[in-house]
Amino acid sequence: MRKHWLLFTQTVTIALALLFIIHTLKPELLPNAAHNGVVTLHESAAPAGALPITGLSVAAKKAMPSVVNIFTRTTIRTPVNPLLDDPRFRFFFGDRDNTPQQRSSLGSGVIVSSDGFILTNHHVVEAADQIEVALADGRKARAHVIGSDPETDLAVIKIDLPGSIPAITFGHPETAHVGDIVLAIGNPFGVGQTVTMGIISALKRDHLGLNTFENFIQTDAAINPGNSGGALVDTNGNLIGINSAIYSPNGGSLGIGFAIPASTAKNTMEQIMQYGSVTRGWIGAGIQELTPELAGSFNVDHPNGVLITEIVRNSPAEQAGMKTGDILTAIDSISINDWSAMLDTIANLPPGKAVAIKLVRNGTEISLPVKIGKRPKPRDQ
C-alpha cells in the first residue's frame, strides 16, 4: 500500500511540474481557460466603450503626411565699426573678420491645401532668408512666405512640388472638451517627425503675454523646441490646433504646452492667402482691467467692463468723444467683462462699420456711436 502511495505522489508531482513548465514557456498549448470564466494573461479584455489602441495609430497615420519639417536660415550682419577702416587701428589690432554669420533654426508646419500652402508659426519663419520644407514622404522643396501675422504668431508659406501634396482635415476645436485625447505632431530638436500623446488640459487660456490675441488650447502632450508650427490633432486625425509655445524654464517639455485653435488659425490663414495680411478693427483706446477697488472709486456697483486709460490722438475713440476714466461695458450689445473680450470683439469688426459703445461716465450710463478704424500693423511686421 505504501509503495502504491509513493508511486501516486511521484506521478502527481511530475504532472504538476510539466504543467508548470508548459504554462510558463508554451501557454498557447493549454486549452483556452476563458470557457471556465478565467482569462489568461496573454489575452486582453477591453472594457465596453474603451478607445481601441489602434484608434490612435489610425489618427496619427491620417495626420502625419500633412505635417512637415521646416528648416530656415537667417543671415546675421554685424554693424561695421568705422575704426575698422582706420589704417592705424588695423596696424595695431589687425584685420577684423566682419563676414555675415548664418543662423539655422528648426520648426514644423501643416499642409492646409493640396496646392502647397502651409500653415506655421510666425516666429518659425520670421526674418528667414531661406526656407526649406521636408515632407513626411522624403520630398523637399524651397518655400516662400505668403504672409505673416505676429499678433497671433501665425504665418502662411507655400511650396511648389509635382505630384500629390497631402492636406490635413480641419477639425472643430469649439466642440473640444478638457480631458479629450490629443496627439501633437512635429519635429522636436530636429530628430525627425514625432508623435506624442496627451489630453486637453484647459481651454481658452489667455493673459499669458505670448501673443496680442490669445485663446490657447493647453495640453500635456509633449511639445519641445522644433514642434512650433506643428499639428495638434484629435483622435480622428483632424487638426484642432497649431502648436505654438511651452511653459518651461529649461526649454524642455514640462507638460504645459499651448496651441492656437484651428478656428483662429483658419480665419487668419484665409485672410493671409487672400490679401497677404490680416485686417482687424481698431478704435484707439488703451484699457485696464476693472478691479473691485477701481469700480468703487468710479462709483460703479458691479465691476463689469474695462477702464479707458488712454485715447490715441485722432483715433475713432477720440472722434466719438470717448474720454479717459470712462468704463466701457458693451459694444453693439455684446457685454465686455475684460480687456481680452474687448480686444477680440473690436478686432473682429470690419473697418468702417459704425457701432454703439456703452460707457459709464461719472456714474451715468451713456452710448456713443463709433466708426471702427483699421488696426495699425505691428512694428515688427
Task: Describe the structure in your own words.
- The protein has 381 residues and is of the alpha+beta class.
- 21% of the residues lie in helices and 32% in strands.
- The chain has helices at 2-25, 53-63, 87-93, 122-125, 262-275, 292-297, 316-320, 339-347, and strands at residues 67-76, 101-111, 117-120, 130-134, 140-149, 154-159, 181-186, 194-205, 216-219, 231-233, 239-246, 257-261, 281-282, 285-289, 306-311, 327-331, 334-335, 354-361, 364-371, 373-374.
- A 6-stranded antiparallel β-barrel has the order 1-2-3-6-5-4.
- A hairpin with a 5-residue loop joins strand 4 (130-134) and strand 5 (140-149).
- The N and C termini lie far apart (101 Å).
Structural class given helices, strands, pairing? Answer: alpha+beta
Fraction of residues in H or I helices: 10-25%
Question: Uncertain runs with pLDDT below 50, 5 residues or more?
Answer: 32-50
Taking all residues together, what is the mean pLDDT? 82
Q: Provide the succession of SSEs.
A: HHEHEEHEEEEEEEEEHEEHEHEEHEEE
Shape: extended
The proportion of residues in beta strands is: 25-35%
Number of helical segments with 4 or more residues: 8
Q: How far apart, in Å, are the first and last alpha carbons?
A: 101 Å
